[in-house]
Amino acid sequence: MKKNKLFSILICILLSSGISFADVTFSGMAGGTTGFTGDFDPSAPDFNIPFNAFAALQFNFSSWGIFRANMGFATNNLANENIFTGQEATLKMNEVSLVLTKTGTSIRNYFGFYLGTYEVVGKDEYLQRHLSIEPFTSSITKSQTTLTCGLPLYKNEGIGFSYVMDFNNAPGSFGLNAYVNLIGTTVPQFNFDLRTAWSTKTMTLDFAAGIGAPLQNTAGGNNVILLIDTIYLHGGLSLLLGNLYTHSLLIQGGIQHVTINPGTSPETFEGLDDFSFILEPRITTKHLKVRLSAFSLPREQLNDLLYLDDPFGFSINCYSDAIPVKNNNMTAGGYLIASFANDSLLSAISSNFDIPSMSPFNASIVPYVILPVANGDLEIMGQFTACDILNTMYFKGKLKVGYRKAF
Q1: I need a labelling partner for 371 at 20 to 30 A (CA). Which of 13, 79, 147, 381 fits?
Q2: Pairing between strand 107-116 and 187-199?
Q3: Please, are residues 147 and 306 in contact by the beta-carbon 8 Å criterion?
């Protein structure tokens, strides 16, 4: 109910602003993927036709404000007669935001009011909007819904306020977020984060850290006005050493829910699923690019990924993005992925990387091509995976076609 009221207020502001100010520009983007997935496990064979789609729009109001909205849809199987019911079908408003801008002599100020997920660390939105740089996040994290790359290194979704200052005379920015979300379905949590980002010819940095405090109103079975007995720390780092046009190294790491109780200090992570890590050396030549990736990701992050099915592993991506096609270039390449179905970097360390004792080991080959079509990008990919290689091996595969276009 509260989200609906805030959404209505934002829409009213948008409409009234559009009437009052004629200098409005509009841009948007839409796309999605569909295809086939097959699991040829003799004990439980499975076949599906998944479908994912998104639409995003942005209104720029002269020099004083920006309105954005982003919606996504996903369903597991178009072959099921109940597309919206009886399966995990979702329709989600990813972001609704209104950003007011004010330019000073040395800084440009952004005051943001939002619902949903807003400029998370681990994606390139913040860096593109505030530092005007090209996306650099690992392509191994490409979304099957939006065909963009990046994962939240920690969650910052909710109802919130953001303030960002961009420095006119330096390649950097500083900001803060204050937002409220829910733990489970009943306990509200207040969060406060600080953030900074910088970009030079040899380094790009995006870093944020903050705290979350559950706001409870009961203690020992008695009602109280307000009780805060636990604080959660969270943070994320995205660092590119080098740049997109040279050899470089990408480092990303994030943590959610480092618990601090009264009289204690954080000694261990609450759970292995709270940890994200990507290490990616990059080799760049004129005609060929190579990306060597090691990753450990929360399992819940895998649901929307195009290439990855497992949370922990390694990959090699070799590709060329300079193959001439008429008046444009196409991209063609392939991944080799080795991964573990139920492990993470932390569990692998605790087992001393004893591969036979770890979870099922899988290996995949993933060729793909990205073609410029009708001022958009058409991506075709196939994946063939040998599962549980060290025990009872079986196979699964998928073929997907995706398209994304800005307008």
Answers
A1: 79
A2: unpaired
A3: yes
Which residues are within 8 A (CB) of 184 and not within 5 positions of it... i.e. 6 or more apart?
A: none
Q: Which residues, 6+ apart, have CB-to-CB distance to 136 below 8 Å? A: 124, 127, 204, 240, 244, 250
- Please give the Cα distance from 364 to 367 (Å, whole number): 10
329: left (phi over 0), alpha (psi -120 to 50) or beta: beta
Which structure tokens are listed for 404? 């994304």
Tens place of pLDDT for every residue, the chain, 407 residues? 445 455 555 555 555 544 444 478 889 999 999 999 988 877 777 888 899 999 999 999 887 899 999 999 988 887 766 655 555 678 888 999 999 999 888 999 999 999 999 999 999 999 999 999 999 999 999 999 999 999 999 988 899 999 999 999 999 999 999 999 887 667 889 999 999 999 999 999 999 999 998 887 766 666 666 677 788 899 999 999 999 999 999 999 999 888 877 655 555 544 455 789 999 999 999 899 999 999 999 988 898 999 999 999 999 999 999 999 888 899 999 999 999 998 888 888 877 787 777 889 999 999 999 999 999 999 999 999 999 998 889 999 999 999 999 98
Say if CB 390 and CB 341 are below 8 A apart: no
- Secondary structure of the chain as H, E, C letters: CHHHHHHHHHHHHHHHHHHHCCCEEEEEEEEEEEEEEEECCCCCCEEECCEEEEEEEEEEECCCEEEEEEEEEEECCCCCCCCCCCCCCEEEEEEEEEEEEEECCCEEEEEEEEEECCCCECECHHHHHHHCCCCCCCHHHCECCCCCCCCCCCCCCEEEEEEEEEECCCCEEEEEEEEEEEECCCEEEEEEEEEEEEECCCEEEEEEEEEEEECEEEECCEEEEEECCCEEEEEEEEEEECCCCCCEEEEEEEEEEEEECCCCCCCCCCCHHHEEEEEEEEEECCCCEEEEEEEECCHHHHHHECCCCCCEEEEEEEEEEEEEECCEEEEEEEEEEEEECCCCHHHHHHCCCCHHHCCCEEEEEEEEEEEEECCEEEEEEEEEEEECCCCCCEEEEEEEEEEEEEC
Rounded Cα–Cα distance for residues 359 and 310 (Å): 10
